[in-house]
Amino acid sequence: MKYEIYYVDKKNRIECMLIFSLMKKIDWCEDGLKIVTWKYTKIAEGDADNLNQIFKKHSILNIDHRKKKQTRSINIGDIIFFDEEPWIISSFGFRKIPDILWKKIYKK
């Protein structure tokens, strides 16, 4: 199945990590409003069988000293769009993003 990975902007990464690493249950009404204000950048796409396979593949940091801008590994707060559904990475696994929020994030 096809997937896409979106990194949260460096400016919002700390706030994003705090929300999705400390809370077992996400308040989509309050925190969802924050998510739509953050900037996400598509950094990868491909084919995979499941979310864990995607996470494992992109959690390895590959440093190429020839590149001026290094890519980071996938982390808490990043989004995986897999099998037509958006998932955000939290410290408690993957959380499905409500469709209405995804439409706001993806339009940017």
Write the layout of secondary structure elements.
Elements: E1 2-8, H1 13-22, H2 28-35, E2 40-47, H3 51-58, E3 79-82, E4 85-90, E5 93-96, H4 99-107
Antiparallel strand pairs: 1-2, 1-3, 3-4, 4-5
What does this structure look like?
There is one protein chain. With 108 residues, this protein is of the alpha+beta class. It contains 4 helices and 5 strands. The longest helix is centred in the first third of the chain and has 10 residues, at 13-22. The radius of gyration is 14 Å and the shape is globular. The mean pLDDT is 87.
The major β-sheet equals: 5 strands, antiparallel
Helices and strands: which structural class? alpha+beta
**What percent of residues adopt helix (DSSP H or I)?**
25-40%
Shape: globular
Q: Roughly how many Å is the radius of gyration?
A: 14 Å
Q: Taking all residues together, what is the mean pLDDT?
A: 87
Estimated share of beta-strand residues: 25-35%
Element order, helices and strands?
EHHEHEEEH
> Segments where pLDDT lies below 50 for 5+ residues?
none
Using DSSP, what is the number of strands? 5
Q: Numbering strands along the chain, what is their spatial order in the largest sheet?
A: 2-1-3-4-5
How many DSSP H or I helices? 4
Give the CA-CA distance, first to last residue.
Answer: 24 Å
Note the quaternary state here. single chain
